Amino acid sequence: MKTRFRSFTTIVRSPKQMEKIAGRTAKLVIEKQKAKNRGVCILLNGSVGVGKSVFARGFIREFVRNPEEIVPSPSYLLEQEYMVKNEDGESKIVRHFDFYRLEGMNQTDWMALGLNEALTNDVCLIEWPNKGRCPKL
Questions:
Q1: How far is the CA of 55 from the CAs of 23, 79, 82, in angstroms?
Q2: Distance between CA atoms of residues 103 and 60, nearest Å
Q3: pTM over 0.85
Q4: Taken in order 43, 61, 88, 96, is the CA torsion positive or negative?
Q5: What is the pLDDT along the chain (137 residues), one digit of tens a residue?
């Protein structure tokens, strides 16, 4: 399986602009998933307060097609899951992880969160990915 990594950096002037960028990104991911039907992972890096959670909120609201969707930070729970049915009646899942409170993960933690399956099948948004490094499986 070929894996591609794409990275971009942009200057965002407001939370509203960040949510708009995230919404456009969600639309691209939805189209990609229709064509390839496999997992997509978006890693959200940056210091505290740069807008990772704002991006996640905008992305999830577009993905579930509900601009009023309540999107709490998963800091204490580690994960929030959102499901939507596409026009074919198929369920699609976006999983929002926040690893800020972690000091690393072992294989048991990784498996307990269902990360292997999530990264293969679902759309994953991961805040602070450097704190939840993948163990050798």
A1: 8, 16, 15
A2: 26
A3: no
A4: positive
A5: 455 556 677 788 899 999 999 999 999 888 877 767 678 888 898 888 888 999 999 999 999 989 999 998 887 788 899 988 777 777 888 999 998 888 777 778 878 888 888 888 889 999 988 887 655 54
